[in-house]
Amino acid sequence: MHKLTTCPYCGVGCGVDAELGEGVVAKVQGDKEHPSNYGRLCVKGSSLHEVLGTNGRLLSPLVDGQRVSWADALDRVAEELLCTIKEHGPDSVAFYLSGQLLTEDYYVANKLIKGFIGTANVDTNSRLCMSSAVAGYKRAFGSDTVPCCYDDLEQTDLLVLVGSNTAWNHPILFQRMQAAKRKNPDLKVVVVDPRRTATCDLADLHLAIKPGTDSELFSGLLSYISSEDLVNRAYVTQFTEGFNEAISAASEQFNSRAELAEYCGIDLATLEQFYQLFSATDKVISFYSQGVNQSSSGTDNSNAIINCHLATGRIGYPGAGPFSITGQPNAMGGREVGGLANQLAAHMDFSSAEAIDRVGRFWDAPNIAQANGLTAVNLFQAVEKGEIKAVWVMGTNPAVSLPNTNQVSRALEECPLVVVSDCMASTETIRYADICLPATGWSEKNGTVTNAERRISRQRGLLPPSGEAKHDWWIISEVAKRMGYAEAFDYQHPYQIFAEHAELSGFENDGKRDFDISLFSDITETAYDALKPVQWPVTNDAPYGTARMFADGRFYTPSGKARFIPVTANKPKQLPTPELPYVMNTGRLRDQWHTMAMTGRTSRLFSHRDEPFVELCQADAQKEGIVEGELVKLSHPQGEYIGRARITDDQRPGELFVPMHWNGEFSAKARMGVLLEPVTDPISGQPESKHGRVAIEAL
Ligand code: SF4
């Protein structure tokens, strides 16, 4: 028997065709009909059946380390939350969610805390992934709208990959790009990345810029477009505002292109070659991810890219647009339901009293939150300060993934109530839990996810839950009922939650908001089970979904026009010092996913890279007396990291690369997060995880 579902790893959101055997997933292959991957799977996706089973799973509810019944565990969570709220107010409670949650889980969690508990102290690990892209889109378009779709990668004539090792981190999209280049030899590929990654194998041009110079590179491009009279005046006049201010800000940054090239650490000829290519090509996709977002100026980086597309009118038609790519499988679904602390639900936020009132009325919510809550880094700082006294972590591992992870561990250690819902029993975070709630994992969960091209797909239950594991939406709803909100959380099946979410998306909308899937408001269980992948918005005008946005030049700002954003030069905050002389760049590996809770369960996925490492160039290795393969230590006042030296010319001098995955379960001394300072983008709250500073020595 075969069932169709979706891969739970990256934001590509590939469709999976699972072959079921006797109580197991016997085999997986790509879903040939799924429009995101057309039958392909990468090495992580194709090993999904190997990481299942009960080994290492959290199988029963635990309170203070003792096995208890579900009823007792849920009673205890509800009682403790009510008690905390009564004594210290709603803002003393926080939820920390995950892009691994399904949209239905996310929706219910957000509804409980923002509508009924009455605080917006709910954030998600998506904050670490793409919140700068969200903020950039909202500033430019008035909405968090990804304008493009994957087909655009094949229809374009110029792919500009910025801060994205697509070959490793979004492998199926990279395969689509490779195929597109084979089919269209005129397709040019530019990679902007300090490192020479596997993605550069496809590049006609590689700009190995200094880390943290992205916005200056694109502001320079905007200035070039203007000075060379390449602006699409008709588009700018009819569909945008703020052009002159953005041009002034861009032009004032450097006295000459030569000065800019030097600032970016590349030669002038390479810089100008890129600018000429961009300017001379009508169909340009700028494809960007964490290298752009994980910066203390991540939002400005996004807007510097978007400004160039607006100035040339390269948006809203096939093969053109600024295309941010999410890291997580359901980062987009989390954005839809308001999983971030500065969102409300259905792409509404706290900037509008009308929106707060609308969501409150729709939910019939007694305590609708009135203002933004704390974002991830600030949230765990507030836990350490004692301002937050109860935190519920769902499906994520902040004691490994957040910057300054030792601080996060301290905060969790000292917090009076830590609840963790997870499918795994031994994450770093679960060690601090007073109450552990076993959640279903991939192959057991049942709901929807939305990938990086706005495509909603079903993740279907293939197997019964392991042990006593329950779905996250059920766990949250049962706690809500015990807190006195039974009527609002009386869900029996995820299709009911999806239908409510869809109804809210259309509630008093009238085309004012981009996210609208109200055609699904009356979806039945049968239709939900059969739901085919579809890109939102899904409306009467677009019943089969919407491939790309802004074709009509209408945006979601008050004026209906897209906004240019003036961007000024901004250096990273974690700059090298004599004591910490190296820039530390961080990232993912081809065959691992985040903190390895799943991918770490199959030896096959360790054949690519089997231990923590540090990459550095030959010149730096010589300077530090380090030889290939020896253990090295990275130091920072916050902590240390130990890994094996890999000497490579792919690394710029003065810069190191460290993978993000390893943690206590696999290697106690290789949590790279301990080295990252808790520096964030002031607009998006996203941490500057791509630019640490460290010292290195041989052990
Ligand atoms: Fe899964 Fe991403 Fe690989 Fe597709 S590209 S199979 S979604 S990990």
TrEMBL record:
GO terms for biological process: cellular respiration; nitrate assimilation. GO terms for cellular component: membrane; oxidoreductase complex. Residues 1-56 form the 4Fe-4S Mo/W bis-MGD-type domain. The keyword Calcium does not apply. GO terms for molecular function: 4 iron, 4 sulfur cluster binding; metal ion binding; molybdopterin cofactor binding; oxidoreductase activity. This is Molybdopterin oxidoreductase. Keywords: 4Fe-4S, Iron, Iron-sulfur, Metal-binding, Molybdenum, Nitrate assimilation, Oxidoreductase. It comes from the Bacteria. The keyword Ribosomal protein does not apply. Belongs to the prokaryotic molybdopterin-containing oxidoreductase family. NasA/NapA/NarB subfamily. Its cofactor is [4Fe-4S] cluster; Mo-bis(molybdopterin guanine dinucleotide). Signal peptide: none annotated.
